[in-house]
Amino acid sequence: MQQDQVPRDILRLPVEPGTSLEVAFRHSVEGIIVRGEFVVEPANTLRAAKTSYPSYGAGLEKLRRGAQTRLTPTSMTWFPANRRYAELVFRITKAEDFRLTVAGREIALSALLPDSTRVRLRVRHRRRARRWFEALARRFIENGGQEVIQ
Predict the structure, then answer these.
(1) Is residue 134 very low, low, confident or very high in pLDDT (cuts 50, 70, 90)?
(2) In-domain check, residue 58
(3) Mean pLDDT, residues 120-129 taken together
C-alpha cells in the first residue's frame, strides 16, 4: 500500500494467490457500510469477487448484464463478471471509516492515516513466514501507520 502525498510504502503484507481481502467504508451520502471483496491472482492482479451493501445509493454499482446479484431484505450483493485491477486507489477519510481486512486481520486505515490521504493498493507476490506477517501488522498498528514497514 502506498500513500500518494509522500510516495512510500506504508504497509507491506505477504499474500499468496487466492488470498481474499476486503475494503469496507461508510458511504459518504447514504451512511451505509459498503464492502468490496477482492481475491489476489497469480498475475499480480486483484479480482473483484463481490460488493455488498444494505441498500442502493448514489455512486454504487447498478445492476448490469453479465453480473450476478443476490438480493435479501437486508442487503444487496453484486458479483462482477471478470473485473480485474492492477491496483485500487482510495481517498481515506475519517468520516468514511475505511478498513482493510487481509487474511482475517483488520486494519482501521481511517484511524491510522491523516484525513484525505490517497492510497494505492497493489499486489506483488512475496513468500514470507507467518511470524513475519504478524510482526509487520503489529508494528504498523503500534506505530500508528506512520512508519515505512518492510
Answers:
(1) low
(2) yes
(3) 68
